[in-house]
Automatic annotation (TrEMBL), chain B:
Record keywords: Oxidoreductase, Quinone
Entry protein name: NADH-quinone oxidoreductase subunit NuoB
Database matches in Gene3D superfamilies: 3.40.50.12280
Gene Ontology terms describing biological process: aerobic respiration; electron transport coupled proton transport
Gene Ontology MF terms in the entry: iron-sulfur cluster binding; NADH dehydrogenase (ubiquinone) activity; oxidoreductase activity; quinone binding
InterPro entries in the record: NADH_UbQ_OxRdtase-like_20kDa (IPR006137)
Native species: candidate division WOR-3 bacterium
Classification via Pfam families: Oxidored_q6 (PF01058)
Enzyme class: oxidoreductase
This protein's GO CC annotations: respiratory chain complex I
Domain NADH:ubiquinone oxidoreductase-like 20kDa subunit: 57-154
Protein EC: 1.6.5.11
TrEMBL record, chain C:
A single GO molecular function term of this UniProt record: NADH dehydrogenase (ubiquinone) activity
Domain of life where this protein originates: Bacteria
Entry similarity comment: Belongs to the complex I 30 kDa subunit family.
Pfam families xrefs: Complex1_30kDa
Name listed for the protein in its UniProt record: NADH-quinone oxidoreductase subunit C
Coiled coil stretches, renumbered: none
All residue ranges annotated as the NADH:ubiquinone oxidoreductase 30kDa subunit domain in the record: 29-147
SUPFAM superfamilies: Nqo5-like
InterPro entries for the chain: NADH_quin_OxRdtase_su_C/D-like, NADH_UbQ_OxRdtase_30kDa_su
Length: 375, 168, 168
């Protein structure tokens, strides 16, 4: 077979930009020679609102409503981080029933966030059926959220400092168990089978390999780090709420490529279903909010101090550092989003030396959320 | 835009009881649907999560002939699904200029009307009307898929059936 | 290793102000000149995950306070190191040689938002804001509500008049 040898060496810039079927709200500038990528540079900032400055003008109960718009794909997790940071400064303990409700909401958010991950990955790699099925199954969880909090997507600060805003309705545990048994397990089986599809295996095996030393140096956390082989999870290492009382495992991968990350995601969904079932059995009766904070006009002062709250969101480690100096409003709030590290250093590192056609598979396997990168 | 806007004196969607223009509840097939509306793939910010069920299986928009497209030259509707920052409004304006006539801008959410939840942010666009000519606003934070469909239904009605004959 | 053992090891080699807030949280306050020495020492003890770098603007004292939050996967303790630098000439050596690219990207964001210069950081170009002419936005003397009301809203419009009335 005859092949051509090029006369000139051509380098050109390719813009994998914000209005693209294979990427949302985020651009990557690639320097390409033929089909090989020489250099990649991330282009963030399309969604920057200055959250940390906005929160300095509002009291904690208003901040709870604002905090669920930090990352639109998992709003309840960010509610939880903010609430934990405020409670640690105020020095209050929440009742146990509120803690169990928070765990159930956080795990259901993790399941629906992983479904969006699979849907977006399928859309980016051209697998249309996976996209439509995953979003379809996610709607059953949004119906549960609507029964409990009142809205499908933004729960208006349901997890607020002091507990939760209202108690769960009476027969909701029956509905949650029915949904999980009949719909979600069917869906998890479906994704388990889909991952053994030869086309997806060919597109993701050996693509975007990240070794463990590089992962820790670049700041990766969450499923991206666990797929490299390290068993690190904030729910087990630094337990918050009542996670110490549940019996669950941490799935890890071995090779650090895109296929291991997807497999870790499917296994995590199974463990989340397990945790929700245990929590529904063990939930004690009691109060759903700290009695002093039940009436909103009692929230007048935060004592001076500082705190650092960490949780395991669906994408990785999400943290909130809060400083207060005695006024009702916080003095400084800083959020650390998992996608900030995944989309800028890790992506630029992984894209060097690969082909242009592999860019969507690598990009979506890191589970990016541009909203919590820009804040 | 003289060819697109007209007062809907007669509905092109005939319903059996003749009450209103609700395409969701009726099971009559859509008669005289002039052309299918194609949506440009600019899914931005918060309204994105409620646009996904509209595109995918639960509130399927493909049964009305709408699909998301990749090139601005194929598209009829630009959906601005929430707040825009100064960086992204520049790209949206370029996309709008490249779309062929007749074209429509649909603005979702309360952030496009008066600034919304981020009214005191230094980086967001406060009134979308200053930057792009908006045809229809859909309120909500974010608006539900049923509200988006009602807006699309009103849009379909606004299309003048004589447009295609005039161009010949 | 327990938190008190860690405190003893650090206090044996450096003079710092240290306290244990609760289980798994240790806070240190150091001088600007000792910062790199302590960071190297702590990295060798096993603290290799840099969680966040943050800056707090104390306007009354005229200082910026930098905080470095590091976590160790083997000892499972979160250590926070705080220093203060003067506000008029905010210059500090970077920790990029110690913790790699995760430090570099956090410092780039803090340079854009507060104006702190990190010596030795390979790339300090703007990250989020495009064509921003104004002071670094997160400083305490930049009031975003006043900025936004002057630039974008009109007091004559009755829907927007309420924005002019809200004070902190």
């Amino acid at each position: 077979m005859e092949t051509f040898t090029p006369l000139y060496d051509t380098y050109y810039n390719l813009y994998f930009g914000p209005a693209h079927c294979g990427s949302g709200n985020f651009g990557v500038k690639l320097r390409v020679r033929g089909e090989k990528i020489i250099d990649a540079r991330a282009d963030p900032g399309y969604l920057h609102r200055g959250f940390e400055k906005l929160m300095e003008y509002r009291v904690p109960i208003q901040n709870a409503v604002l905090s669920d718009r930090l990352c639109v794909l998992e709003p309840l997790s960010w509610n939880l981080v903010h609430a934990e940071a405020v409670e640690e400064i105020m020095g209050i303990e929440i009742p146990e029933r509120a803690s169990y409700i928070r765990v159930i909401m956080a795990e259901l958010t993790r399941i629906q966030s992983h479904l969006i991950w699979f849907a977006a990955f399928s859309m980016g790699t051209g697998f249309d059926a996976g996209f439509k099925l995953a979003i379809g199954y996610r709607d059953y969880i949004l119906d549960i959220f609507e029964r409990i909090t009142g809205a499908r997507v933004y729960p208006a600060g349901y997890i607020c400092p002091g507990g939760v805003r209202r108690d769960i309705p009476e027969n909701i545990s029956r509905k949650i168990l029915d949904t999980l048994d009949y719909r979600e397990e069917e869906m998890i089986e479906l994704f388990h089978d889909l991952l053994y599809n030869p086309i997806i295996i060919e597109r993701t095996r050996g693509v975007g390999v990240l070794k463990l030393k590089d992962a820790v140096r670049l700041g990766a956390t969450g499923p991206v780090l666990r797929a490299c082989g390290l068993k690190a999870d904030v729910r087990k290492d630094d337990p918050y709420e009542v996670y110490g009382e549940f019996d669950f495992e941490i799935p890890t991968g071995r090779k650090g490529d895109a296929l291991s990350r997807l497999k870790v995601g499917v296994e995590e969904m199974k463990e989340s279903v397990n945790i929700v079932k245990q929590a529904l059995e063990k939930m004690p009766p009691g109060d759903y909010i700290h009695p002093n904070l039940k009436r909103i006009n009692l929230w007048k002062k935060m004592p001076p101090g500082e705190s650092y709250a960490r949780i395991e969101a669906a994408r990785g480690e999400a943290c909130c550092y809060m400083v207060s100096d005695g006024h009702p409003q916080p003095y400084r709030v800083k959020f650390r989003g998992p996608s900030f590290l995944h989309m800028i250093p890790v992506l630029e590192f992984l894209l060097k030396g690969t082909e242009v056609a592999d860019v969507p598979a690598i990009y979506w396997s890191l589970n990016p959320c541009p909203a919590d990168m820009d804040r | 835009m003289p060819y697109v806007m007209r007062k809907p004196t007669e509905s092109i969607i005939e319903t059996p009881s003749g009450e209103g223009d609700d395409i969701m509840g009726e099971k009559e097939p859509l008669k005289k649907l002039i052309r299918a509306i194609w949506v440009f793939n600019w899914f931005n910010s918060c309204g994105f999560t409620e646009l996904l069920p509209v595109v995918a299986s639960r509130w399927d928009m493909e049964r009305f002939g709408m699909i998301p497209v990749g090139s601005p030259r194929h598209a009829d509707v630009l959906i601005i699904a929430g707040y825009q920052t100064f960086k992204s409004i520049k790209r949206a304006q370029r996309i709008y200029e490249q779309m062929p006539d007749p074209k429509v801008v649909l603005a979702l959410g309360s952030c496009t009307m008066t600034g919304g939840m981020y009214w005191d942010s230094y980086n967001t666009v406060k009134r979308l009307d200053d930057y792009l000519p908006v045809t229809m606003y859909v309120p909500g934070c974010p608006p539900r898929p049923e509200a988006i469909f009602e807006a699309v239904g009103k849009l379909i009605e606004m299309i003048d059936p004589k447009f295609l004959e005039k161009k010949r | 290793m327990e938190e008190n053992e860690l405190l003893e090891k650090i206090l044996a080699n450096f003079t710092v102000d240290a306290r244990v807030q609760r289980k798994r949280r240790v806070w240190l306050s150091v001088d600007k000149d000792n910062l790199l020495g302590i960071c190297n020492f702590v990295k060798q003890l096993g603290f290799d995950h840099l969680s966040a770098i943050s800056v707090t603007d104390w306007l009354n004292e005229g200082k910026f306070e930098l905080t470095y939050h590091v976590w160790s996967y083997t000892h499972k303790i979160l250590l926070t190191i705080k220093t203060k630098i003067p506000r008029d000439t905010p210059l500090i050596p970077s920790v990029f040689p110690i913790w790699g690219e995760s430090a570099q990207i956090h410092e780039r964001e803090m340079h854009e938002m507060f104006g702190v210069k990190f010596g030795g950081n390979p790339d300090l170009s703007p990250l989020f804001l495009e064509d921003w002419e104004g002071p670094p936005p997160f400083r305490k003397d930049f009031d975003t509500r006043k900025y936004v009301c002057e630039k974008y809203y009109r007091e004559e419009d009755e829907r927007e008049r309420v924005y002019f009335l809200s004070k902190m």
